[in-house]
Amino acid sequence: MIERIELRHLRYFVALAEELHFGRAAKRLGIAQPPLSIQLRRLESELGVALVERTSRRVQLTDAGRVLLEESRGILAGVGGVADAVQRAARGETGSLTVAFAASVMFLSLPKIIRRFRDQFPHVNLELRELPTGLQLVALRTGEVDIGFLRQPPPDPDLLRENVMREPLLLALSKRHPLASRKNLKLADVAHDDFVLFPRDLAPGLHAQVFAVCAEAGVSPRVVQTSRELYTTVSLVEAGLGVTIIPASVRKMGWRGVRYFPIRSPSAMTRIDAAWRADNRSPVIPAFLDIARVAARA
Predict the structure, then answer these.
(1) How confident is the model at residue 1 (pLDDT cuts 50, 70, 90)?
(2) What would you report as the CA-atom Rg of the chain, rounded to the nearest whole angstrom?
């Protein structure tokens, strides 16, 4: 019997119980008075008790009515809370998001993106992971990561991508290098130097770009040392073990013993894409991407 009680019955009853007047309650609900009276009688019939005492002058709650008023308020508040929580989740305002990034991207606009996202979506559990592009691709495919910031990512049919940052590549060499004092330096000028580079699996797209830029300048890099860490790579360059090609943002790490030269070629502009699985329908992803787009435009 009680299963047939609807939420609207409770809303009507709460309005009447708070107004203690059929006319005012009906006006508050935006309905005529007769339907309100009919719905109240149906509710009393379903419950098998009298909820109000009616006289020509006033409406008064019975003991059962006072109990129902308290319970109805809790039920309606709970339903409202559920609806609000569901709607917030659908807007990407709650839930969780795992974001991966290559170390060098932290020198660009990523910190600003993260800060703005935390400010605007404080109820989203944001997990950050520092991973090179190669491992990010694996984590994205397996679903361990929701969004990755990939430098020069290779094509992948399972991923959607959007360019959010760009920066040039630079030639870096020790200040003790014989050519370091030059005002200008071309890549071809270090064609016979040793190179310190990162392994291909670390960032396949960037690795291919570096070699393409070198080939364009007629340089075939003689790689004598590889390093999986940018800090180590530049430290080895500072120590004079060779030269390297790195993203411009790495200068912010502050090596005093390293000199940087621009590589004057359109091919030396590297891109950072936000990438996510095409089948990942989390509403938090569009919310994060909106903030990333604004930061990218700025």
Answers:
(1) very low
(2) 33
| Angle separating helix axes 33-47 and 7-19, nearest 10 degrees | 110
Cross-strand pairs, 59: 54
- Using pLDDT thresholds of 50, 70 and 90, give the confidence band for residue 215: very high
- Residues with Cβ within 8 Å of residue 100, at least 6 apart in sequence: 128, 129, 130, 131, 135, 136, 139, 140, 145, 147, 148, 149
Least confident of 84-88, 105-109, 238-242: 84-88
Instruction: Give residue 93's pLDDT.
Output: 60
Burial 181-205 (b: 16+ CB within 10 A, else e): eeeebbbebbeebebbbbeeebbbb
Question: Which distant-in-sequence residues (6+ apart) come within 8 Å of 39 by Cβ?
Answer: 8, 9, 12
The residue among 270, 221, 222, 218 whose CA lies nearest residue 246 is 270
The tens digit of pLDDT for each residue in 172-209 reads 999 999 999 999 999 999 999 999 999 998 888 899 99
Nearest-10 crossing angle of helices 204-216, 133-142:
140
- Which tokens belong to 82? 């559920």
**What are the Cα distances from residue 62, in Å, to 21, 22, 44, 216, 289?**
15, 16, 12, 90, 55
Other CB atoms within 10 A of residue 85 CB: 13
Residue 24: which pLDDT band, with cuts at 50, 70 and 90? Answer: confident
Length of the chain: 298
Residue 89 has pLDDT above 60, yes or no: no
Give dist(CA 263, CA 251) in Å, integer.
15
